[in-house]
Amino acid sequence: MIARIVVMLMVWLLAEPVWAGDAERGWGYLVDKLAHDGVPRERALRVFRDDRVDPFEGLQFSLQPRESPSLYRDLRTRRTAANARRCLAEHDEAFESAERQFGVPSNVVASIIQVESGCGANTGRSRILPALARLAMAAEPENLERNIDRLTLLHSERPASTVGEFTRWRGQHLEDMFYPEVKATFDIAERMRVDPLDIRGSGSGAFGMPQFLPRSYLWFGVDGDGDGRVSLYDPADAILSCARYLQHYGWRPGLSRREQHDVVWGYNHSDAYIDTVLWVADEVTEPTPEPARPRSTTRKRRPSKTTTHRTTAAARRH
């Protein structure tokens, strides 16, 4: 058993990158899928041969990804709520229009826009396509086998067959989630007549004020200002698109807190995120009073001349 583990480890560490000697720089699996689904092969090849996209050297993934509960702790503050109120006031017409058309309260949409991008101040500067493409390659056969070998070593307490089966499921799950986002990025670029690599957002592939993934842009994007195009960097478009998204996932008047939680789950599968968004939304409309500062009952002693002289003398010495 130990010899087998050593051999597997050496193979894993010394194996050539999957793109070695490959004109497609390791992206052939993804290029083939895109070509099959209607993206011209030459167009896809131009993108993945571009120096702005790193060669695909593999993607390591875990069997049980976990998000830290503290991830959104710094956003659950009165400052975030105050900024969300300012965002709402600055774009009040768009928020009122969104609430009128889609029935989603302005404070909830303002909370999401603030938490996601600081009301558009931080939409991200990364190219979204490479990040999405790497995740879409999770089930690429060579990458999958390397992950099976690695995870079998990491989880040696489990039967190798069980680890292998779950790793294959996990890799396919990632591909099923992110390959459609890659295809949607090409579709958006064609619609907007831009280079797919010019679409910028977060390092996780989301973009615009509401930080939509590409398919969400195609499904829920709204031309809020009537200029004939949908831009998630435009407040009117972004705010109405966010409200439409929440309406699609079931937001309606009179929801219980549990039901509100379930709707926002459709936006981000994170309990910490949802708790933060709903807390900020509450604070936007009904700010929690600042706790009163206790009054000091201790009278300050006036320093004697000697003390003052010594302090001054010490200050001069240093």
Protein traits:
318 residues; mainly alpha; two-stranded antiparallel ribbon; 2 strands; disordered C terminus
Approximately what portion of the residues adopt beta-strand conformation?
under 5%
Strand order in space, largest sheet: 1-2
Question: Biggest sheet, in brief?
Answer: 2 strands, antiparallel
> Count of helices?
14
Low-confidence stretches: 1-16, 303-318
Secondary structure category:
mainly alpha
Number of DSSP strand runs: 2
**Cα distance spanning the termini:** 68 Å
Query: Per the principal axes of the C-alpha atoms, what is the gross shape?
Result: globular
Order of helices and strands, N to C? Answer: HHHHHHEHHHEHHHHH
Question: Which percent range fits the helix content?
Answer: 55-70%
When the domains are counted, the total is 2
Radius of gyration (CA) equals 26 Å
Give the overall pLDDT as a whole number. 89
Provide a short characterization of the protein structure.
The chain has 318 residues and is mainly α. The protein has helices at residues 2-14, 28-36, 41-48, 78-90, 92-102, 106-117, 128-136, 141-154, 160-192, 214-220, 235-248, 257-265, 271-285, 305-317; strands at residues 126-127, 200-201.
